[in-house]
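Why run this: before we spend reagent on co-expression, it is cheaper to look at a predicted model of the complex and decide which construct boundaries make sense. The entries below are exactly what would go into the expression plan.
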Amino acid sequence: GAGVSQSPRYKVAKRGQDVALRCDPISGHVSLFWYQQALGQGPEFLTYFQNEAQLDKSGLPSDRFFAERPEGSVSTLKIQRTQQEDSAVYLCASSNQLAAFVFGPGTRLTVL
Amino acid sequence: AQTVTQSQPEMSVQEAETVTLSCTYDTSESDYYLFWYKQPPSRQMILVIRQEAYKQQNATENRFSVNFQKAAKSFSLKISDSQLGDAAMYFCAYRSYNNNDMRFGAGTRLTVKP
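The model came back. Tokens follow.
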């Protein structure tokens, strides 16, 4: 597609619910990144894929967070047993090798 | 680990005037990329300008230019002839040649006064 798309754009979850956030990167972009952005803060790195391989997951805050990209295109970020501190905007970005990132519009997650 | 510091949480500028946003970074690497991203209230991050560290010439994109001082590890953004549409959060970001993730500063909120 022309840009990176993310769905849903907004998600409200009750504490303890599982959520799944989807990212559709730009076609042909081998690299895909997930970031977490708290209100008023800069994006914080979560995890990185090159094609279907998850090469770095050092930024995932706990084992409740899980990401996958099984066919090297669409990626899903799953958060199990959501907590209030998980409330944030989750940004997905894709890039070609060393080019600049192209970001999606983000998913705003609110955990009540 | 690389860190990116934006020391100005908020800045304001009069329409048609010039404003400079500051950014410093800490790295032991010699090859890397630097970026400025703009994030309007809609929250979509948009690339404003990029600079390769090996290039001495400062990058320019229309009204946007950078002052890249490699020795000082400084990377400021100058916006000339500011427009109301420039109002947004601006993030400075660092990406090394070796690591794939991008590190962001905390951002500067720019207000443009008519």
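Chain A has a mean pLDDT of 93. Chain A touches chain B at residues 31, 33, 40-45, 48, 50, 55-56, 59, 89, 91, 93, 98, 100-106, 108 (CB under 8 Å). Bring this page to Monday's planning discussion.
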